[in-house]
Amino acid sequence: MAKCIVIADDLTGANATGVLLKKMDYNTYTMMNAERLELSLSDSCDCLMYPTDSRGIDKELAYNRVYNAAKLLFNSEVKVWAKRIDSTMRGNIGAETDAILNVLGDDVIAISAPCFPESGRTVVGGYLMVNGLPLHKTSVALDPKCPVKTSNVADIFRQQSKFKVGSIKLDDMMSGKHVLAEHMKKLVNEGNRILVFDCVTQGDLDLIADALITSGLKFAAVDPGVFTATIARKLITPVKKDTKHKILALIGSVNPVTKAQVEELWLNQRTAYNVFIKSSLMLENDGIRDAEIKRVSDELLEKSSKYEILTAVGDGIYSENRIDFSKYTDRYDNTDKMTERINDAFAQIGYNVLSQNPAFKGIYSSGGDITQALCKKFNTTGLRLLDEVLPLAAYAEMMSGDFPDIKIITKGGMVGDDDAANRCITYLKEKLYM
C-alpha cells in the first residue's frame, strides 16, 4: 500500500517529485489516466504520484480536481500527503491546498517549505528568491497564464486560500527542533491552518521535518517536492530498517580545503556533533595514545543517543594544532610511520563506535589514508562501488569483514568545493532514510 500520496498540478511536477523519491529507493508510480485508474496498483508501490493538470485552469475547477483526487486516493495508512506545487508559485496554490485540507480533515494543517536549493529557489524573510532575485522580478511575473505579482509566499496563500496563514522565519528556527515544534503548535492553536517556512538549505528542510515529526501535528506538505522527499525519508522506511540510523564522519586531512568543508558541514547539518581528535597524542606512548582514543570514542558514543551525525575531526585542520613531525624523529623511522600510526588511531575510533552502537550504518571518510586504515581495521575485503556522489567522491558498501554492508562515502581531502562534505553527508542521509 502506498505510504506517500503526491497530488501534483501537472505531469512534469509529478514526475520530478517521483524521481526525488525514487532516488531514495522508493517504488514510485505516476498515474497517467484517471479514467482507467486501478487502485490496486498502489498495493505494490511506496509512493503514488497523481497529476491533475490543474495549474492554468479556473480555480473552482482546480479545487474540484484536487478534492476528487484526494477523496479517491484517501487511505488511513498513508503517512505522507503532499500537494506538489510549482517552484515559482504559479497556479491555483490556495484553492488546491484548501481542497486537500478539506478532504483530510479539520485537524490537518498544510506545511509549505517551498525551497528547491539545487534549482536556486530559496525563501528568506518570507520572500521567494529565484537565483538571488525576488520572484516578482523574474520572468514569472510575465507568465501569460499564471503571472505571479508578489514574492511574499504567505501573501500568495492569503490571497488564494480561505484558511489562516502563519509564517515562520529563519529567526524562529535557530534554537533546534524542539523549540520550533512548540512554535508550530502555538501558531496552530492560534487558528493557522497553513504554515509557511523560510528555507535556504537542505539542512533547513531537515530541521523543519524533524520539528514537524516532534510536534505530532497532522499535516500535508505543500511544496515543489524537496520537502516532500525529506519528510518521506524520515517517516517511510523500509521494512528491514528497525533502528534509527546514524552516520560517523572521520576526517583526518589538515589542508585548508578540508577546513572550509568541515565548517560548512557543521553550519548546515544541525543534527551533527563533533569531537576533535588531538592528533599529536597519537604519536605519544601507547598509554597516552590509547587514552585519547578512548576519550574520543566514549564521547561519540555518549552523544550518539542525541545526535544522528557524529564527526571526529583531527585538530590539525587548525594551523596552530599542526604536528611538528621533527619532534618525533627519535621514535619513528620516517613520516610515513607517524601518519600510519595516526590513521590507525582514527580507524580504531571508528571500530570502537560501530562495534558498540549498531545504529551506525554509514561512514563518511575524508582522506584516502583514513579510508585504507578503516578497511584494514574492519577486516574489509573490498568496497562494492555503488555510485559517484561528486567527482572523486564514491559511494560504496563494505564487503564482508567485521561490519559487512556498512555504507561509506570516501572523498579525497583536497577534493570538492566548500559544500562537498555537506553534499556527501546529505547523500548518505538519503540512502539511509534519515
Automatic annotation (TrEMBL):
Domain Four-carbon acid sugar kinase N-terminal: 5-229
InterPro entries: 4-carb_acid_sugar_kinase_N (IPR010737), 4-carb_acid_sugar_kinase_N_sf (IPR037051), NBD_C (IPR031475), NBD_C_sf (IPR042213)
Native source species: Lachnoanaerobaculum gingivalis
Membrane as UniProt keyword: no
Pfam families xrefs: NBD_C (PF17042), SBD_N (PF07005)
Residue ranges occupied by any Four-carbon acid sugar kinase nucleotide binding domain in the UniProt entry: 248-420
Superkingdom classification of source: Bacteria
Family of the protein in this entry: Belongs to the four-carbon acid sugar kinase family.
Protein name: Four-carbon acid sugar kinase family protein
Keywords, alphabetical: ATP-binding, Carbohydrate metabolism, Kinase, Nucleotide-binding, Transferase
GO molecular function list: ATP binding; kinase activity
